[in-house]
Design brief:
This protein is an alpha/beta fold. 31% of the residues lie in helices and 18% in strands. Bound molecules: alpha-methylisocitric acid and iron/sulfur cluster. The site of alpha-methylisocitric acid has 14 residues, from helix 3.
Length: 754
């Protein structure tokens, strides 16, 4: 469907002049990322060569997207701003709250009943404020956005880290916390640290078993989970133009897994084809008219080293399929090395379940290629060894693949089709037997594989691969099966080889759908009432957080020194907790329960310094809060990696944690902490992490002269009476310091709208 065509046309009519002006001001050719950023500067921001990785810049995104698990908090915040309508086109997508258990129809029905209160709230608040609403069952936010809203050269933000998926259609699309979305919907500018630029040159052409997923699995192996932090990854080269638009989407989607601000591709014929086949020929035509502005300048791509901060080159003709995991998406193993890696690491090699789909990999192309393997099961007399599931990304895709007979073929290999929703990708998988916590292996085509992420079982080892490889491994039931070289023994005892996958980029008969699941908002929503019951367990209206006391923070108790990986899943777990995403006090009961305590290596077990007893993190923090004692959380590298969920920042804020001090932060989480009025600090010397002791009383000094670019000091008062002073860095700019002083960004907006 085409939405907001006028907005797209307006963007294109203004783009040439803005890009030309930027090129002149900077005196050099521009990358695509720069073209999009500079043409979306907030009105009044002068063009200068903003220092990458240093300068904070105000932007004017074209649109906002929110999914149900984060939209609740975003819209509860928006509701307190006093605005009548959203200032930019915005949408809400109901996808995260649907549990995958039996099959799509009954699972969806159950979700609609269980989440009625939340869906009703989201539907009516969307209706009131002019927000497009996609009902449960319509699909996963990023697929629905790609199919309906994304446009080359556009800029959007979304309350989900995989918003970056829209880079597949040439956007700069960035994942943010709800408070950022709230600002943009309220008509304010959106601030971003000017990203560094990483160029990825793709040469050659994919063939055989290799797929776009393998490009990003390889890039993740090269850059690691933090290698893309504060950078935009721009893909270019003949390999990029040779690839489908949805394949580009997959690559951009998983850019979140390397911490990249976003990833993008220049406009090309594959994008035009995708726009036309999804009913947006008008957009393709408008884009064609300004196409040189929708890709990087030729000089840039000819001499990438001169214009990007870092350049990586990948030859697609030589690319091997990869399996990344377990427990982290950057542990990349080329499929030919899996036998060795599995033996060395003692990974269980029996594949229990293969899961395809999700927002990352459920395009028509993905499914048609996977189906070409499923077909071979009957043709070659094989039997599928593992369980197999499909989570389509949208109703448009589901309806079309059903029409084209793909679902029937999958049914023949015993597949279960789950609802068009996140399901197993986000722990909403009611997997039979998971509670036994047995060590086992699964393979999936999703993007994340942190511990407990899929089924809640910490002993499930999840490997991420392309849908094709997942299907082949599910058929073989073996993690070490290499379909490029190995054979399988069929029912007749013959050794057979799987033919490489093949499929269609787009449906030859076009896409089809009966009911896409969209609800347009009321023209005038002023009369719509929003009801939040005071005794609701799922929704709670927000209260403003208290302003900064105006003094240094003295006598903070150490709540937890987290050891090693501490993602947003460790800080605010998803799965069963998703149901409390609209209720700050209830969801706070999961605060940091997944983080490992450095001192006893246990999760959810910390010392209460007031009593000397050990208890859960949330209950210990509540005890400090009741005693009016502030606390500090200490973390390791890339703290807050993963999701955009601002609950990971709001929970500590609500429960009285004052400071989070870590070796390094993931971008979105750091901003979320700042937005909620928390103090987010980093160790100036990373080794100082080792100085923090369990019984420390900690002071943060220098706050009365809190200034951008100037470090603060932290005094560690140890239990033996000694003390040490360490240096703490911060990245607050003047505006962010105002948020801290006011007790949160929302308090600043509210004060300004009075
Ligand atoms: C995820 O993939 O982790 C999620 C669930 O989509 C999150 C959003 C959330 O926590 O609600 C994300 O990536 O931002
Ligand atoms: Fe949903 Fe998973 Fe995609 Fe996040 S990554 S939006 S949980 S399907």
């Amino acid at each position: 469907m085409v939405f907001d065509l006028d907005l797209i046309k307006k963007t294109y009519s203004e783009m040439p002049a803005k890009v030309d002006a930027a090129r002149t001001a900077l005196g050099r050719p521009l990358t695509l990322a720069e073209k999009i950023l500079y043409s979306h500067l907030w009105n009044g921001v002068g063009i200068t060569d903003f220092e990458r990785g240093k300068a904070y810049v105000d932007f004017a995104p074209d649109r906002v997207a929110m999914q149900d698990a984060t939209a609740q908090m975003a819209l509860l915040q928006f509701d307190t701003t006093g605005r009548k309508k959203v200032a930019v086109p915005s949408t809400v997508h109901c996808d995260h709250l649907i549990v995958a258990k039996d099959e799509s129809k009954s699972d969806l029905k159950k979700a609609v009943t269980e989440n009625e209160e939340v869906y009703e709230f989201l539907s009516s608040i969307s209706n009131k404020y002019g927000i497009g609403f996609w009902k449960p069952g319509a699909g996963i936010i990023h697929q629905v956005v790609l199919e309906n809203y994304a446009f080359p050269g556009g800029m959007m933000i979304g309350t989900d880290s995989h918003t970056v998926n829209a880079g597949g259609l040439g956007m700069v699309a960035i994942g943010v916390g709800g408070a950022d979305a709230c600002d943009v919907m309220a008509g304010l500018s959106w601030e971003l640290l000017m990203p560094k630029l990483i160029g990825v040159k793709l040469t050659g052409k994919l063939s055989g078993w290799a797929s776009p997923k393998d490009v990003i699995l390889k890039v993740a192996g090269i850059l690691t989970v933090k290698g893309g932090t504060n950078a935009i990854v721009e893909y270019f080269g003949e390999g990029a133009t040779n690839m489908s638009c949805t394949g580009k989407g997959t690559i951009c989607n998983m850019g979140a897994e390397i911490g990249a601000t976003t990833s993008t591709f220049g406009y090309d014929e594959s994008m035009a084809r995708y726009l036309r086949s999804t009913g947006r020929a008008d957009v393709a035509e408008a884009a064609d008219a300004v196409k040189s502005y929708l890709t990087g300048d030729a000089e840039v791509y000819a001499n990438p080293e001169k214009y990007f901060d870092k350049v990586i080159e990948i030859n697609l003709s030589e690319l091997e399929p990869h399996l990344n995991g377990p427990f982290t998406p950057d542990l990349a193993t080329p499929i030919s090395q899996m036998k060795e890696a599995a033996a060395k690491n003692n990974w269980p090699t029996k594949v229990e379940v293969g899961l395809i789909g999700s927002c990352t990999n459920s395009s028509y192309e993905d499914i048609s290629r996977a189906v070409s393997l499923a077909k071979q099961v009957a043709e070659k007399g094989l039997k599928t060894k593992a369980e197999f599931t499909i989570t389509p990304g949208s109703e448009l895709v589901r309806y079309t693949i059903e029409r084209d007979g793909f679902l029937d073929t999958f049914a023949q290999i015993g597949a279960t089709v789950f609802a068009n929703a996140c399901g197993p990708c986000i722990g909403m998988w009611d997997r039979m037997g998971a509670e036994k916590q047995e060590r086992n292996t699964i393979v999936h085509s999703f993007n994340r594989n942190f511990a407990k992420r899929a089924d809640g079982n910490p002993n499930t080892l999840a490997f991420v691969a392309s849908p094709e490889i997942v299907t082949a491994l599910a058929i073989a039931g073996d993690l070490t099966f290499n379909p490029l070289t190995d054979t399988l023994i069929n029912e007749k005892g013959e050794a057979v080889k799987l033919d490489p996958p093949s499929g269609d980029e787009l449906p030859t008969r076009g896409f089809d759908v009966e009911d896409a699941g969209y609800q347009a908002p009321a023209e005038d929503g002023s009369g719509v009432q929003i009801n939040v019951k005071p005794d609701s367990k799922r929704l709670q209206l927000l209260y403003p957080f208290a302003a900064w006391e105006g003094t240094d923070l003295k006598g903070l108790k150490l709540l937890i020194k987290a050891k090693g990986k501490c993602t947003t899943d460790h800080i605010s777990m998803a799965g069963p907790w998703l149901k409390f995403r609209g209720h700050l006090d209830n969801i706070s009961n999961n605060m940091l329960i997944g983080a490992q305590n450095f001192f006893n290596e246990k999760t959810d077990n910390v010392k209460n310094q007031l009593t000397g007893e050990y208890g859960t993190v949330p209950s210990t923090q509540r005890a400090y809060k009741a005693a009016n004692v502030g606390t500090i959380v200490i973390g390791d590298e890339n703290y807050g990696e993963g999701s955009s969920r601002e609950h990971a920042a709001m929970e500590p804020r609500h429960l009285g944690v004052k400071v989070v001090m870590v070796k390094s932060f993931a971008r979105i989480h750091e901003t979320n902490l700042k937005k909620q009025g928390m103090l987010a600090l980093t160790f100036a010397n990373k080794e100082d992490y080792n100085k923090i002791q369990e019984d420390d009383n900690i002071d943060v000094v220098g706050l009365t002269s809190f200034t951008p670019g100037q470090s603060l000091h932290v005094i560690l008062n140890h239990a033996d009476g000694s003390s040490e002073t360490i240096e703490a860095n911060h990245s607050y700019n003047a505006q962010q310091i105002d948020w801290f002083k006011a007790g949160g960004a929302l308090n600043v907006i509210r004060a300004n709208s009075k």
